[in-house]
Amino acid sequence: MSALSALPFLKPVHLRSPRSSFGGQRRHTLPASEFRCLSPEDAVSVFEIEREAFISVSGDCPLHLDEIRHFLNLCPELSLGWFEEGRLVAFIIGSLWDQERLSQAALTLHKPRGTAVHIHVLAVHRTFRQQGKGSILMWRYLQYLRCLPFARRALLMCEDFLVPFYQKCGFEALGPCEVTVGELAFIEMQHPVRGHAFMRRNSGC
C-alpha cells in the first residue's frame, strides 16, 4: 500500500461540479479539486509554473526541468500537487536529507536513509495567487509528512522576504543557510514532524 492511499486526508479530493445529463446520459466532469502526489508526467506543467513564479523575481528556478524529473522519479511520494478541473495550480517538491543543516549538495541529492524532508520548492500558478492556496497546500503537505514513519522534520531555504510566510506555516528560522545560488543568499528554516507512532495513536494514520 502506498503512503498516499493509507492517508484519508491526502487521498484525491473529488469535489465535482453539479451533474447534468443529456439524453438520459450523465456528462463526465473532472474533479473540481484534487490533491495527489506528482509523477514524472507532471514535470512539464510543474516547470512552467515554477519558471513563471521564480524567474521574474530571482532570475532563476530552484529546480530545472531535468531536476524536476529526477526527483519525481526518485521520490514522487515527497511531492504534492493541487489540481483544479484537472489543471495543476500549485505544487510542492521535496526529497530526503540526512544532515542537520542543508548544504550545496542538498540541491540535487535525495538521501533515502534521511529523516529530514528538504522542501525544494512551493509554487502557485499566477492566476491562483493571493487566494491562500500556498498556505493550504503547505498545511496538507505537513499533515502528510507527519504520517510518514521516517520523517522527523521539514527543512527549506528561502529569501528574507518569504520568512514571514513560512513562519505563519509553523516554520522557525535557523539562521543563514550555507547554500548560495549565484549572488542569492537564503535563510534556512525548519518545522518539526512528529513521529509515526504518535500520529497513529492520535489520528488514525
Automatic annotation (TrEMBL):
The keyword Oxidoreductase does not apply. Residues 33-194 form the N-acetyltransferase domain. Gene3D superfamilies: 3.40.630.30. Pathway: Aromatic compound metabolism; melatonin biosynthesis; melatonin from serotonin: step 1/2. GO terms for cellular component: cytoplasm. One of its GO terms (molecular function) is aralkylamine N-acetyltransferase activity. It catalyses: a 2-arylethylamine + acetyl-CoA = an N-acetyl-2-arylethylamine + CoA + H(+). The keyword Chloroplast does not apply. It is an enzyme of class 2 (transferase). One of its GO terms (biological process) is melatonin biosynthetic process. It is found in: Cytoplasm. InterPro entries: Acyl_CoA_acyltransferase, GNAT_dom, SNAT-like. Its EC number is 2.3.1.87. Keywords: Acyltransferase, Biological rhythms, Cytoplasm, Melatonin biosynthesis, Phosphoprotein, Transferase. Pfam families: Acetyltransf_1. Belongs to the acetyltransferase family. AANAT subfamily. This is Serotonin N-acetyltransferase. It comes from Pandion haliaetus (Osprey).
